[in-house]
Amino acid sequence: MTDLAQRVQEQLMEAIDKDQLVLPTLPEVALRVREAAENPEVSIPELVKEISTDAALSARLIKVVNSPLLRTRQEITDLGMAVNRMGITYTANLATGLAMAQMFQATSDVIDRKMREVWGRSTEVAGISHVLSRHYTKLKPDQATLAGLVHQIGVLPILAYAEEHSELMADPKSLDLVIARIHPVIGDKILEAWDFPIPLRHVPTQHLDFERVSQATDYSDVVQVALLQSLAGTDHPYAQMDWGTIPSFAKLGLNPHEDEEEEDLSAEMEAAMQLLG
To answer: Which residues form the HDOD domain (predicted)?
Structure first.
């Protein structure tokens, strides 16, 4: 680890320990949608009213509900029909995830490229997670999608820090080292601050524990397998591991050395990634 990376890591960890690290907040529309969805008496028209304040988000939700992912028999032409088809919880989770794209914006070219890279990976993992959860678990696909979208959310405060410290921004190697070391623990902090559902709050740290064993298949297992599948065929260190020894594959009933089933679902995974990206 470089001296710069070590110093920055120590500074950020100290800020975390003292609750001084400035964490990102969800976009306003996502906050309103989540607040509305948490009201047990909320009606579909009320939720539609909140979502419709963001025309782009409304259009994307209609696009998703008409996609092969949800296999709608009749074309959905308006937001009310879309919410009615997906349900309040599913809609809220999907709207939260789609709205998060607004957070991945930077004021410098260097950080902008990094944010695009992180968001691109996040949407890829989210798309794969959606399909894996639907076909290999009893978990909720919308929750799995959201888990995939937030698995690297801890990178955002590090990139915000880098934008204010030119020394780190000018040293990509050190920046990558800091991100790899501490983005998971920051991610857990963010999801706790956002009051995310308990099953998702530790996905940032747990999805990187490749020896992790739990009693039942959970969202961290799904995101872990999705991440590894997204890296298949690359020179990434995770792609060089023996996946046959990783418990999450067995928990999903997948043999990492046989990719026939994965090939059957590749079109569905690709569709999910394109919708989220």
So the answer is: 23-210
